[in-house]
């Protein structure tokens, strides 16, 4: 058994530890819920931890691994949420099996977001840096505002669509599916904490394995030096589009899970502030650090809720915590201190001293 464990690669061991920790936390939460020991507030946050974790991990692929600043991640989430919810609302009386209907909604949301990921990936080939941030920010705002003005309904004559402030005139018995700023109402609440945890684990495993694969190393080579990567035969076009597509796909999945956890889906929830919040998760968790993104998403989701008793000072304390976390993660002195006091390095230094003492003896 010990020999088998030693043969497992370092990345695999790290992934197993992370997945095992998530499963243990999930089981502990289920025990607390079953015993009635978890507050109503905490129960409501469990789902948020999962889909925000998925968003942070997927954005880290673009920002941390590919090295491109994207400010439109909420746009991909919005596309996934609306297409998935639209499908569920249309099929609620057609597909009676909840599992099949929700599975198809997840597939529809993921594929829709992936298509837009390819489109943005193609745009990325032509711009970079601040210009890319502006393009992705504009994409997110365009998606939000188009859905804010879109009206889609269905009656005996089929689907009807209109743009603008006016409302659709449907025949008797017709149903509005997307109603402009009011969004989609009456979405079946098929998402559960268990489903969210499963997709969080899948997101972590897939993206972590991608990062440690040949494709991941090619993406990181493009990030470090595009010209050098091209000179050794790396297809920059292919890998940039790949990174944006996978990132958008998981953002779309997170959007579907989010949409099926609420009764009313509004496009106003997916604005600039949402994209910035996801980017904050990535930066404070460590750019390129997949596990850190999840931890940061949990902490920064939990913190504002538990600071509500401070009322007007809540966001001030939140801002101070963000600054302290930023300094702790990125200050050279703090990085050096963490290395000197980490358990792994301490164990390594101890082993080195023991080896040296045995050698001298």
Overall average residue pLDDT: 83
Strand order of the largest sheet: 2-1-3
Structural class: mainly alpha
The H-and-E topology, N to C, reads as: HHHHHHEEEEHHHHEHHHHH
Rg calc: 23 Å
Q: How much strand? A: 5-15%
How far apart lie the N and C ends? 32 Å
Largest sheet: 3 strands, antiparallel
Count of alpha and pi helical runs = 15
The tally of beta strands, per DSSP, is 5
The count of domains is: 1
Uncertain spans: 1-5
State the helicity in percent bands: over 70%
- Tell me the overall shape: globular
Describe this structure in words.
The protein has helices at 2-7, 10-34, 40-65, 73-91, 98-124, 130-149, 193-211, 214-224, 226-231, 236-259, 272-285, 290-306, 314-330, 332-341, 343-360, and strands at 150-155, 158-163, 175-179, 184-185, 264-265. It has 361 residues and is mainly alpha-helical. It has one domain (14-274). The strands form 2 sheets. It has a 3-stranded antiparallel beta sheet with strand order 2-1-3. Mean pLDDT is 83; it is low at 1-5.
